[in-house]
Amino acid sequence: MPAIPDEHVVRVLRPFVAATGPVLRGLRDADPFRLGRLAERRAIELHENGGKALPAPTTKRGKVGRAVRTGRARALDRLATSKLPGTPRWQAMSPEERDQWWVSRVGRFTSVVASIPGIGGALARRLPVSDILGLGAQGLVVCAIASEHGMDGRDEQVRLLASVLFGREVDPRRHGDAHGPEVEREAGELAGEVGEGHTDGRLAALARAVWRMGKTLWGLQGELDRRPQGRRAWRLLANLPVVGAVGSYRNERSALKRAARAAAKWVARNGAV
How far apart are the first and last CA of the chain? Predict the structure, then answer.
């Protein structure tokens, strides 16, 4: 008999899944320099111009202006082919390419969050910050991959999370409503300001949300040893003084990639559209 009943696993995972929507949108759309919009604008310019070159200027001022416009156009051309949400390149990417984008996006973000002193307040000083953030990152990436492959149902994602992170096969349909008021309330608490649509301090709000989400999964003690782990070499390095921080970072990135691969395989086996 499992140490933690399936009902409790489902109760913890449902609010997590419900909260991933606004948090993943925040991570996807976080573009402080609006590069995605600039890239999209450049793609429209190229389409409207039909690739035709403009007449060469004859004055010195005109030549300087053309040089500036040419430099700007080249920079935007690179952005138009970059892998940023909202760009033509993103629209053309396969689900597998987007999977890798999410691994990189979430992994880098949580590594930055882990470097912020006191992200979880006094409680963070008594808890393993990198492990909690790593667990939250795995959950976010798993849900992002499910959505990219067309698996958006909450209980489907609960099944996926339980299987990939904890090696548990659960049937959420036997344990209440995925959209019940208690689920919505807890999801709102996890997402916090991100779920309320606030734009001020967006990155800080995202950092706090990721911390809360990792912490709620951390409550499933007894199941955590089953989550995807990084390479053994990185785990050993993480225990050493001085270089331990590097080892911990590399270990969590390695574990994140393994979780992503496991999620993609699970989705493929279980009928993504």
Answer: 34
26 vs 106: CA distance, rounded Å: 11
pLDDT tens by residue, 61-90 = 666 666 666 666 665 555 444 566 656 677
The token pair that represents 41 in the structure block: 């604008």
pLDDT tens profile 28-42? 775 544 445 555 565
3-state secondary structure of 226: helix
CB 141 within 8 A of CB 110: no
Handedness of CA 109, 114, 118, 124 (dihedral sign): positive
110 Cβ contact partners less than 8 Å away, ≥ 6 residues apart: 133, 134, 136, 137, 210, 252
Amino acid identity of residue 54, one-letter, is L
C-beta separation of 264 from 99 below 8 A:
yes
Phi and psi (nearest 5°) for 136? -60, -40
What tokens appear for 44 in the block?
């429209």
- List, in order, residues 6 or more apart from 22 with CB less than 8 Å away: 191, 194, 195, 197
Q: Kindly give, in sequence order, each residue whose CB lies less than 8 Å from that of residue 51, ignoring residues fewer than 6 positions away.
A: none
Query: Cα-flanking dihedrals φ and ψ of residue 16, to 5°?
Result: -60, -50
Rounded to whole angstroms, how far apart are CA atoms 24 and 102? 9
Whether the Cβ atoms of residue 231 and residue 254 lie closer than 8 Å to each other? yes
Which of 152, 112, 153, 144 lies closest to 259 in space, CA to CA? 144
Give the list of residues 6+ apart from residue 239 with CB closer than 8 angstroms, or none: 247
Q: State the DSSP H helix or E strand holding residue 207, giving kind and residue range, or none if neither.
A: helix 202-218
